[in-house]
Amino acid sequence: MRVLVTGGAGFIGSHTVDLLLQKGYEVRILDNLTPPVHIEGQVPAYVPREAEFILGDVRDRAAWERALQGVDAVFHFAAYQDYLTDFSKFFHVNTVGTAMLYEVIVANKLPIQKIVVASSQAAYGEGKYQCETDGIQYPPLRPVEQLMQRDWEPHCPVCNKTMKPVVTDEARLNPHNQYAMSKYTQEMLALNFGRRYNIPSAAVRFSITQGPRQSFRNAYSGALRIFTTRLISHHAPVCYEDGQQLRDYVSVHDVARANVLVMEDARANYESFNIGGGRAITVEQYARLIASKLNKSIEPSIPGEFRFGDTRHIVSDISKLCALGWSVQVSIDEIVEEYIAWAGEQPDVRDYYAEAEVAMKKMGTIRET
Fold first, then answer.
1. pLDDT 10s digit of each residue in the chain, 369 long?
2. Where are any strands of DSSP class E within the chain?
3. Is residue 157 part of a domain?
4. Alpha-carbon distance 335 to 313, whole Å?
5. Is 346 a domain residue?
């Protein structure tokens, strides 16, 4: 069985490629190898020689037609992710690229047995909350005016009281930013076109995935990467808001296992699944954990700034995926220890955050209260 992995030279894609090869699949990769994740046009050393590699862009029909020849299943992980305001690019790459995938399959009557499309926890926006008066709520994006007053917690849209976060299941999406909206539309395309044209499809909504091979040069996201490189460079990790945001971190190894399970299990057809770590930790706690693993006595910096468009709390309910037989196997401590060991071996490790911070403040992404 031959499997195509778009974005297969990237972080999650490459680990999924490794697992597929271990399980005996033939693997083909489609990747455009562009910055900031990659050095332009350079195939990373970790990409295995056993995998066929095609340099191409998912917005290019010819690239899809070449990549899909003789393929039985597809993992569509290629995506654009950033905090930049080039809104259209998110939809050109993520949404149009996914539409092109189905367009080529239908037009050429290709016998694809399964497609797994990468979505994101970001599609939930603020996620699910419990109001003591009005019950379960899905609050909108927190107003800038509220955040400027350092009033961090979401308020009930009915009674305006502050609410408590609860784990967020797959039932309702509420995307707030350009990346999240593009992921939401990818899911709609995949699941609806899949049903309509009898192409078994599934969507996987990744929580904050952590582990080796996360590019240092993409400094806008990835708490483990940013905090580790800051601390290695003897700088304090910066926590936005008050550092008490709840987050859900999952190992890339657990994610790869989940990806392959969803591809192989027919019960996953036409469904969406959360892939998360099944545990909540605050951003400040995470920063302190990383510092302790690095033996650094550097306190987190909590300047009261906020990142425009961020969610306050988000922790995924993973019970639906666990019902297929998957479980979390890598602890948070193991995630951090493995990443630190890997980062220490890389020649290009340094504090990339300082440059990104200047750019994000200039764009208005990071704002002072």
1. 999 999 999 999 999 999 999 999 999 999 999 887 887 889 999 999 999 999 999 999 999 999 999 999 999 999 998 767 889 999 999 999 999 999 999 999 999 999 999 999 999 999 999 999 999 999 999 999 999 999 999 999 999 999 999 999 999 999 998 999 999 999 999 999 999 999 999 999 999 999 999 988 765 668 999 999 999 999 999 999 999 999 999 999 999 999 999 999 999 999 999 999 999 999 999 999 999 999 999 999 999 999 988 999 999 999 999 999 999 999 999 999 999 999 999 988 888 888 888 888 988 889 999
2. 2-6, 26-31, 52-55, 73-76, 114-120, 129-131, 135-137, 164-165, 201-206, 208-210, 246-247, 249-251, 272-275, 281-282, 306-307, 366-367
3. no
4. 21
5. yes
Is residue 179 included in any domain, yes or no?
yes
User: Given the structure tokens 């109001």, which residue do they identify?
Assistant: 131
Give dist(CA 255, CA 271) in Å, integer. Answer: 17
Q: Read off the pTM.
A: 0.96
Burial of residue 42, with CB atoms counted within 10 A of its CB: 0-12 exposed, 13-18 middle, 19 or more buried:
exposed
Please tell me whether residue 212 adopts helix, strand or coil conformation: coil
Amino acid at residue number 193: F
State the amino acid at position 63 in one-letter form.
A
R_g of the chain, CA atoms, integer Å? 20
Distance CA 218, CA 92 (A): 20
What is the domain-level CATH number for residue 34? 3.40.50.720
Range of the domain at 63: 2-128+167-367
CA nearest to 204, candidates 275, 128, 127, 265: 275
Tell me the C-alpha distance between 290 and 114, whole Å. Answer: 38
Residue 21 token pair: 């090869």
